[in-house]
Structures are given as C-alpha cells and as structure tokens.
Prior knowledge:
- With 511 residues, this protein is mainly beta.
- It has a single domain (3-510), classed as Maltoporin, Chain A (Beta Barrel), CATH 2.40.170.
- The chain has helices at residues 17-22, 315-319, 325-335, 342-356, and strands at residues 3-6, 31-45, 59-73, 77-90, 96-110, 114-126, 144-160, 164-176, 183-195, 203-215, 221-233, 238-248, 260-273, 276-285, 288-298, 302-314, 373-386, 390-403, 424-436, 442-455, 461-476, 479-492, 498-510.
- Helix 3 (325-335) crosses helix 4 (342-356).
- The model is unreliable at 1-13 (pLDDT under 50).
Amino acid sequence: MAITISRRAPPSPPLLPLLLLLLPAPACAVDWLVQPSLRLRESYTDNALRAPPGQEQSDFITEIAPAIALVGSGPRLRVHLDYSWHKFLYARRADTDQHQLDAGADAELVKDWFFVDAAAGVSRRSISPFGPQAIGDLPGTQNESTVRTTSISPYLRHRFRSLATAELRYTRNTVDSGGDLLSVHSDEAQLLLSGEPRAGGWTWNASYDVRRTQDSKLANQRMERGSVGLRYPFSSKWAATASAGAEKEGYETRSGKAPQGRFWSLGGVWTPSPRTSVAFSTGRRFFGRTYSLDASFVQRHTSWQASYGEDITTMPAQFLRLGNRDAASLLDQLWRGIFPNALDRRLRIDAFLRYANGLGPELGAINYFSHRYFLQKQAKLTMARATAKSTLLFGITAVDRTAQTASGIDSGLLPGVEFGSEDRTRQIGGNLGWSWQASSRSSVNVSAGYAGTRSLSTTRRDGNATVTAGYTRILQRKVTASIDVRHTLHTSNRGGAYRENGVSATLTMRF
Length: 511
C-alpha cells in the first residue's frame, strides 16, 4: 500500500534534510508518496560462481531485502529515492550483503533566483568489460565492486527582462569504490547566458565552463571551454543552428599532442508537429570531425527516441549518469493516461525498469573502472509501447571508445586482463522488457539482455546474454508472490565461458 501525505513532510532520507531546512515554510507544502516494502526470496542456481563447464557449483540462496521508495512533488521541491538493502544467505559459502540506491532532488530555495540539484547512487559495477559481469543475487566475482556516486549543484538563475537569462552554477561530483580502485572528485563552475530578442524569433546563447578533477592515481586535471551559439528559424518547422568556441582539456595524450583547439558546428532542427522533433549537426573539434543527432517521436501508445553523440569522457563521468532516463521519460509520457497520479506513476516506472534492465541501466553498454580519458562515440535507440494491458520497452546501444591516454595507469585495476585490451573497444547491446496484465491480480513478465564487447586492439571478444521469465500474483492488497526462471550465458574467445540457470520464488510485502 502506498502512503500519500499532503503538506506534511515525512522523515527525510540523508540526501534531503539540508534542502528541506533551507526551504521557506510555504515551500514545504509537498505531496509525498512513501512505499516501504520487504522482499523475501528463495533461489536456486546451478552455477553460483559462474565457473566454466565441469567446474560448476550449485547453491541455494535466501535473500532478505527491506526497501523504501519515496517520491515528493511540490511547487519548489521535487524528490525521488529508491533504496534497498539486500542480505544474501548462501548454503555453501559465506553470506554477503549489498546496498542499492538511486536518489535525486531539485529545489528552488529563493524564488526565481537560487536553486539546488542533488543526486546519489550506490550500485554494483564491473571492473572490466571483459569476463563475468554482475548478476542480481549471485555472489560477487573479482570483476566487480560497489560504486558510490554523489553530485550536488547549487546555482543562481534569473531572467532579466528584455535582455537574457543568466545562470551561474557550481557542481561537486564524487565517484568512489570504497578502496584503492577508484576515487575521483571534481569541482566545476559554469556560466550560461541565453537570449531571445523580440524581433525575428531567433535566439542566442553563450557559455564558459571550467572544471578541476582530482583522481587518486593522476595529477590534477583542468578543463576549460567557452562557446557562443545561434538558432535562427526559417519557418514554423525548420530552424538552423550554429556554434563556435575554444576548449582546452587538461590530460596528456599518448601522442603528445595537446588536446585543445577551436571548434565549430552547424546543424538544424525539424519539428513537423508537437510530437516529433529531430535535431542534427556536424562540426569539428580538436580530435576530428563530429556529428550529433537527437530525435523523438511520440504516438498514442508508442514512443521512440534516437540519439548519436561524440565526446571526450571518462568512466567516472559515465558512472554519474544514473538510471535509464530515456526509457523513464518515454514511459512517463505513455503512462500519463493509464496512471494519472504523477507520484504513483514514478514508482511504477522505477519498478518496471528494475525488472526490464536485466543487464543494467546502460542497456548493454558496460561502463567499467578506468582512470583514462576516452573519445566516445555512442548511438542509442529506445522504444516504449504501453497500453492498459501490456508494456514493452526496447533499447539498443552501440559504443566505440578510443583511449586518449596511456594504458599503464590502469594496470593495477585489471591484473587478469591482457595489457592494452581497452585501448580501443566496441560494444553493442540492448535490453527488452515486456509485462502483460493477464488479469486484475496476475501478470506475466519477460526480460532479455545482451552485451557484446570487442577489443579492436587485441582482438578479444566477450558476450553476455540473459533471459528471465516470471509470473506474478497479487495474493492480498499488500502481498505479492512471483516465480521466475533465468538463463545466463557468457562467451569469450579467450576462455572463461560459462552457463548459469536459476529459479526463484519471491514474496513481496508492502507496508
């Protein structure tokens, strides 16, 4: 049962007290939806440690998982939190536990002037894209670790009438694995200006961004970037875009060439209807020619999103991108008619995505531990279809990463992986999740995922696939039972392939 409270705040999770204390009293008139729960699961697996053929060991696993989901929505405060603690009791090996957290909040502390965004996450992550990957309730391997991320971003924003909108933002990000593997934090200051002159309908923007990054294994890095942009509409459906600027990255490249220079881009925006939008551009940066695409198409029951981008990035920066925002946005649009309450809809979306993303929120594009800088080229396609009886979510992504810095810094992270295997990698993968409401009290759920990783520098290929099917039955208003079966397959041309099959029975109680 969900607990709905209006105009009274419940006990606050650790992420929220500061924001609530800073808000004026009238701003705390927030609608809250709080849903505590307890999950009890009994599982059997025929290959608990994901060992190669002939070395499998079966095990029985008991899971006890208390959890809380919280959504708050008000005129000046929005909050979501999804936290669970999992205790695993194994018949043949030592017990383990793990935490999972996805939380975020944004608040308007001074009306039309001062705002704060915050986010936090805790999740299991793969150390290397090669080898066994993390799977739900199975014991951890040497190729995974817990990653904790936090981000807080206070900023000033104000619209100066007839002139421009100005925003001055500070952001503090941290990524930590709780040991010597990965510990990174960054401080960033950004100034944004945008204007819309009264005549002609054209708009302009300008920005200046400076970021300082401290990595436990590297010297401090400083990034600096400035740009100006223009958008000019030719008609109600077409507009042209242009931007130019200069940038300077702080890392040392393998070639010795400074990662800096001027950049430019030219593009267009096509909006044939309020439900369809396509933005595209081409340009040049210090690393070469660039292309980008951002398209969306919404129908009554089906929505699509497609994107392509190229950028310099790091793995800690990728870890900070919590959750599958594209899929959540599509489901939110489609479920508005089915679940009109925004708070309840958010909880349902989070629950569906946890099941549908069998290989994690990256949709098969594995983010791993590294201290290196990469040129990343990524294409994504996400589709969601929702009716009163069924929901289907499909996503596919392709990622090409080329290391810009030397591989020696990562030698301590990956002692069992061939040196230089991550100099150039290509990944393709995707997830599919489907849920069908068989009756008012029962549903059928299916999820499938695939992630393939190829090293273009050492010719290594690894593949991971998982298929899960389950049946869920509402026993009482507060109690749900389900049974699931799972098949997992890992392949590699360097050995270590395995198969795993599991079955589980789950009882979930909501309070």
